[in-house]
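Incident review: delayed structure delivery

Summary: a single-chain prediction request sat in the queue longer than the usual turnaround. Root cause was a stuck worker, restarted by the on-call engineer. No data loss occurred. The affected request and its eventual output are reproduced below so the record is complete for anyone auditing the incident later.

Affected input:
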Amino acid sequence: MPKKTEINPKDNHISFQCESMGAVEKKLKEMEIDYVRAKVEEGGIEVDQLFFHDPDGFMIEICNCDSLPVIPLAGEVARACSRVNSLQMLQPRVKQVLQQ
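Output delivered after worker restart:
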């Protein structure tokens, strides 16, 4: 496959959440990796995004998407997708595994 050179946020990509957009952007600059900044807003929620290509030409998105609500499965409580909430959700399972 030919490598893509144009960074198009609308193109197919895989997304990863980060804790510090500033740190990621700084590292991309240090590594001289071309990237595009974007911001999306829907329903009063803003998400910052950075898009770039990996060495194989695949599009990568880094975002601070912990502010996005998680759509729960039936019967579950809606939560924000954040590191703190993830840890809180894992604690009962970790205790259960340790008690076995």
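Verification: The longest helix spans residues 83-99.
Action items: add queue-age alerting; document worker restart procedure.
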